[in-house]
Amino acid sequence: MLSQTNILFWLNFLYFFLACFIAFYIPGYFFIRKLKIHLFDASLISIVFGMILWGLQGFVFGFLQVRNLTYLYLAFFCAAAILQALYIQKITVRKIFFKSIDWALFFILLVGSIVQILFVWFIGYVNNTNVIFCCFWPDAFYHTALTKQLINQFPPIEPGMNGTIVHNYHYFSNLIIAELIRVFHLPLLATQYQYSTVLLSFLLGLSVIVFTKQLKSNKSFNRWVLFFVYFSGDILFLLLLFLGKGLNFDLNISENATTLWFSPPRFYALVSLFTALSLITIWLRKKSLYNGILVGIIVGSLISLKVYTGIFALCGVIGISFYSLIAKEKYKSYVPLIISVAISLFLFIPINSGAGGLFFVGLWRFENFAVRPFYWVLFKIRSRYHYFLNKYIFFFFQDYSYLLLLVFSSIKQQVVQIHCSSCSQFI
Prior knowledge:
By secondary structure, the protein is mostly helical.
């Protein structure tokens, strides 16, 4: 373990970015360069797409118990990159004109990334005598232990349950980090909570910028979108004020973009989602078979990064395919759906086949959200009363009100984001 005051910590920091260039960018650019898009856009998409490929190779080679083939994987793409640079494609260096940079957008990116990083920078902080976990330590312990398991073996053993294989959990993001640590011999804690957080926090903003560029929107729209991605939150405290409960900032917030790192799998999923949206936007202009395959790979991988994000992304791809069916478009329009479903099942079934299936557990999340912050205990008691008296219609409407309450408090901020960003098109 390296202290942040140790020079080796910072040398490994630089080495981490070199490892990411080799493991992420080079394989990713091998495929993305064929899209013939702007160099900046291609570079960002290459990093994220290469990150997905890195996790996929770790997954496949891990299950086959041939993890040393990762070195052959890297050798192949490095050799291909060298051949491409020497014999196939001339590399042109473009001048960067500072006048063309949107400095307001850059400022939002910089401040937003720093704020997110500060929330997790001191997780696993090493001083002379102790290792300090500053915040959300139960999850931090679990993710650290899970990454350590993935370094040592695949599939991983459930931390704290000797001999029990991890089931029914998305550990694809842990696998990406574990493979970097295993292959390049990086320090565990520093890579998990310092090095990777810096990379991903900036990648989140950059992926949003690339997506808005693909939409060809104006500067005002781009700034609003990036601002909300980094600084959005729910309006729970305002709802309490409107209901006469006073202005209380001590309540737990359901949505807070500054603390996205409290759920590392979700962070990886959001970066991949915005990159997938960029690829989808490119694909919609000209529905090529090749681009459709790339879309399917990254969308399908979202299930194993964060299943909730993956489900919504799959719903979007299904919607596009349904529209293509109505419009009687060619078979190429269905390629993203076919590939994404295949990749999703490929990643989901081996990990979750013994999980026991799907079970309906009621609307407990919405009920807890309604009762705890507002202290409406009688609200919950009335709901149970209707249930035990078999008044299911009243029970249904009671629980439906919980759902509306959650949607209004946490999802409405997303509606505000869309409204503000859309209005900015006319500014």
